[in-house]
Design brief:
Blueprint lengths: L14 E6 L3 H12 L4 E7 L2 H11 L3 E4 L2 E2 L2 E2 H11 L4 E6 L3 H11 L3 E4 L4 H12 L7 H13 L14 H11 L4 H8 L3 H14 L5 H15 L3
Parallel strand pairs: 1-2, 1-3, 3-6, 6-7
Antiparallel strand pairs: 4-5
Helix pairs in contact: 2-3, 7-9, 7-10, 8-9
């Protein structure tokens, strides 16, 4: 069942925001902060990719705030769905994941900004308004890195081992770290099992992992470091 908490009798000129996060407490805190702003309102909530897509038609948001870790799904897949089906809908990612690894990826996928949950509420409000104004929001450090890459071309050496992975490989790697087996990954990503096994083989090769157990342990440690398990 979709989680929908529209603001009663909201003035028509308020910018409408749909929150997509799998933690009720995070949604509650974001809602409280947004509702204090005179020009913003929360028009609905969702905890996974499928609820979020259903909510778009009924709540008509101006902006979606999306976490990368969602129930039964992943924020990156949701962002790509939105870009495909609602290309004019702005998306801001608010997540606990490492900005240096994920920010550029989500911008390529179609999001308009990235900010970590560790930032102060006032900065999240700045990010929201920046994206609503049609601009891209990134931290100064991340923006400088992307600018340097654009000027100097592709980086000759990844700054992080995970930079070697494609977006889909990173997603599969994170799902492995969350305890998902091959069949579950295949079902959630709408892939056949052979394709998932191919991704697993590529991940092991790129990260120099010797076997499936090494892959599992490495993925679990990575997700624990990210604070996602």
């Amino acid at each position: 069942m979709a989680i929908n908490k529209p603001t009663p009798s909201a003035p028509q000129n308020l910018k409408r925001i749909l929150l997509v996060d799998d933690h009720p407490m995070v949604r509650e805190r974001l809602t409280e902060a947004i509702q204090r702003e005179p020009d913003l309102t929360v028009c609905g909530e969702a905890e996974d990719r499928f609820q979020a897509m259903e909510q778009i038609a009924s709540t008509r948001p101006d902006l979606m705030i999306v976490d990368l870790t969602l129930k039964r799904s992943h924020g990156m897949e949701l962002i790509k769905d939105i870009r495909s089906r609602h290309p004019d809908l702005a998306v801001l990612v608010v997540s606990m994941h490492d900005e240096m690894l994920h920010a550029e990826r989500v911008i390529r996928a179609g999001a308009r900004g990235y900010i970590t949950k560790q930032e102060a509420t006032r900065k999240i409000m700045v990010a929201i308004r920046t994206v609503l104004n049609g601009d891209i929001y990134l931290s100064e450090k991340m923006a400088a890195q992307i600018a340097a890459t654009a000027v100097g071309g592709a980086r000759t050496k990844p700054s992080l081992p995970m930079d070697k992975l494609s977006d889909r490989e990173l997603l599969v790697f994170e799902m492995i770290g969350q305890g998902h087996g091959t069949r579950q990954i295949a079902d959630e990503l709408h892939l056949d099992m052979r394709t998932v096994e191919t991704y697993r083989a590529r991940i092991k090769e790129k990260l120099s992992l010797k076997d499936a157990n090494d892959l599992l342990q490495h993925a679990i440690r990575w997700m624990q470091a990210e604070g996602s398990v």
